[in-house]
Design brief:
homodimer; alpha/beta; Rossmann fold; nine-stranded mixed β-sheet; 34% helix; S-formylglutathione hydrolase (chains A, B)
C-alpha cells in the first residue's frame, strides 16, 4: 500500500503529485497523478477519478486537462491513473488500440493479456485502497469521469457500482463498445469471443440489463472524427431515455476529440461533480 | 506575409491555431501558436505576445499554459512564437541553453549564429506584421509577457519599445542576463564579448540606462531552482525602485520554474493585461 512520490509541483495553492506503487492487480509498477487541493491540508476531501483515453498515461490530462484551477476552488482531489499496465515484461501490440495504453478497463481472461491486463480490478478495488491509505480522501464522496475509452471506463464502473459514486460524467465516451470497431477488436482479445461476456463492459448494454445511475453529464464534440463510427452518443441517449436515467448530453459544435475540447468543458465537469460531492 | 495553418482546434468558444510562415528575419520557416477568442469573430481584439523559455517551442505553453479560458473571457488574442529558428540548415549546439530553442531574443552578429538567429527583428518587426496581415489584431492595444528567457525577452522588448505596449508582465524572468551564467554564455556567443553591447538586451541595464515602462507584474516562485543563480529578481526590484518604475513583484512560496507555476498565475497575468488593454 506504500507509494513513492515521483514528482511534486505546487499548483493553484495545492499540490500536483505523481505517485508509483507496486500493483497486485496488474503485477506491475503502476503510476498515477493525484492533485491535492489546498483544502486537503486541513482534512479529507471528496475525490474524483479521471480515466484517460487510448494511448494516454497519467501525464496527458495532468499536463493538458486544465482541471486544477476548478478543483482547487471546489476542494476536490483528482486522481488520474494510467490506462494499462506497462513495461518490458507486459504483453503489447503494435496497434494504438490494443495492449499497452489500451486497457479498456477490463480484467483480461485471454492470453497473452490475462497476466497483467486487470484494469477493472485495479481501478475498482486496488487503487481506491492505495489512495485512501496514503492521501486524505473521503471515500463517502466519490465521483468518476473520463474521456473516450476512459469515458467508457467511467460509465461502466459507475453503472456497476452506483452506490460508490455520487457523480458521473464523460467527455466523448465510447458508450457501446460492443457495437463499434474499438470494442469489437479489444473485447475478443481481452475477454473472449462471446458477446454475452462483453455486456458487463458496455454502458448501453449494462443499462439495457438493468444497471442504473441517477444522472450523467456527457459532452461530445460535433467535429469529433470518431463520433459516427466509434462513439455514437445517440445509443446512450436512447438507453438512458428508455431506462429513465437523467442524461445531460451536450453536443458541442466545432469541437473535436482533443484536449482542447476536454479543457474547454473541464470547469463544467468539475462543477458538476463538486455540486454532487458537497458535504 | 501569408501563413499556412498547420492545425486548428475549437477551444473555449474561440480557436487555437498553429501557423507557419517563411520568415525573412530568420531565413527559415517559423511556427507560432495563436489563440483567437470568440470576440475575434466580430472585430479586432487586443493582442498579447507570450515569449517562452529555454528549450520550448510554440507548443509548450499552448498545451500547458492554461491561458485560453481567461483570454476567451477577456477577449484577448494570445500569440506564442517559437524561441529560435530551427531546422537542419540552422546552427545549433548540444547544450540546452545555446542554439536552437535558446534564441534569447537578440539579433546575433557572431558566427555561426548571425545567419539565422535574428529573434529580436523577428519578434519586434516581422511577426507583428505577419499577424496583423492575417488575423484581426488591434495593434493599438498590445501587451507582452513571457517565462524565464521569454520573461527576459518580454522585459527587454517592452523597455526598448514602450510606446508599442500598454502592458507588461513576466513569470520568473531572467532580469539581468549580463550578470548570470545563462546570459554570460549566450551573449558572447551571439553578440560578441563586449559587455557594452549586452546592455540593450538586459532589462536591469536598460533601466539603468534610462529605459522606462509604467508598471510591471512579475511572479517568481520561491522554490525555483534557478532563482538564486540565474533569475535574481532583487536586481530588477532595485533598478525599478531607483527608476521609479511601478514593479509588482510577487514571491510565491513553494512554486518552482515549471508550467504548474505558470498555469497557476496565468489568470492573474491575463487579467493584468486585459485591464490595461480595455478599449
Amino acid at each position: 500500500m506504500t507509494v513513492s512520490i515521483l514528482s511534486r509541483f505546487a499548483a493553484h495553492g495545492g499540490r500536483q503529485l505523481v505517485a508509483r506503487h507496486t500493483s497486485r492487480a496488474t503485477g506491475t509498477e503502476m503510476t498515477f497523478a493525484i492533485f491535492l487541493p489546498p483544502q486537503a491540508d486541513s482534512g479529507p476531501c471528496p475525490v474524483v477519478w479521471y480515466l484517460s483515453g487510448l494511448t494516454c498515461t497519467h501525464a496527458n490530462v495532468m499536463e493538458k486537462g486544465e482541471y486544477r484551477k476548478a478543483a482547487a476552488e471546489a476542494g476536490l482531489i483528482v486522481v488520474c491513473p494510467d490506462t494499462s499496465p506497462r513495461g518490458e515484461g507486459v504483453a503489447d501490440d503494435e496497434a494504438y488500440d490494443l495492449g499497452q495504453g489500451a486497457g479498456f478497463y477490463v480484467d483480461a481472461t485471454q492470453k497473452p493479456w490475462a497476466t497483467h491486463f486487470r484494469m477493472k480490478t485495479y481501478i475498482e478495488v486496488e487503487l481506491p485502497e492505495v489512495v485512501a491509505a496514503n492521501f486524505p480522501v473521503d471515500l463517502d464522496r466519490q465521483g468518476i469521469f473520463g474521456h473516450s475509452m476512459g469515458g467508457h471506463g467511467a460509465l461502466t464502473i459507475a453503472l456497476r457500482n452506483p452506490s460508490r459514486f455520487r457523480s458521473l460524467s464523460a467527455f466523448a465516451p465510447i458508450v457501446a463498445p460492443s457495437q463499434v470497431p474499438w470494442g469489437q477488436k479489444a473485447f475478443p482479445a481481452y475477454i473472449g469471443p462471446d458477446p454475452a461476456k462483453w455486456r458487463r463492459h458496455d454502458a448501453v448494454a449494462l443499462i439495457e440489463d438493468g444497471a442504473r445511475f441517477p444522472e450523467i453529464l456527457v459532452d461530445q464534440g460535433e467535429a469529433d472524427t470518431f463520433l459516427a463510427d466509434q462513439l455514437k452518443p445517440e445509443l446512450l441517449a436512447r438507453a438512458c431515455s428508455d431506462a429513465g436515467i437523467g442524461l445531460t448530453l451536450r453536443m458541442q459544435p466545432g469541437y473535436d476529440h482533443s484536449y482542447y475540447f476536454i479543457s474547454t468543458f473541464m470547469p463544467d465537469h468539475i462543477a458538476w461533480h463538486a455540486r454532487r460531492l458537497a458535504a
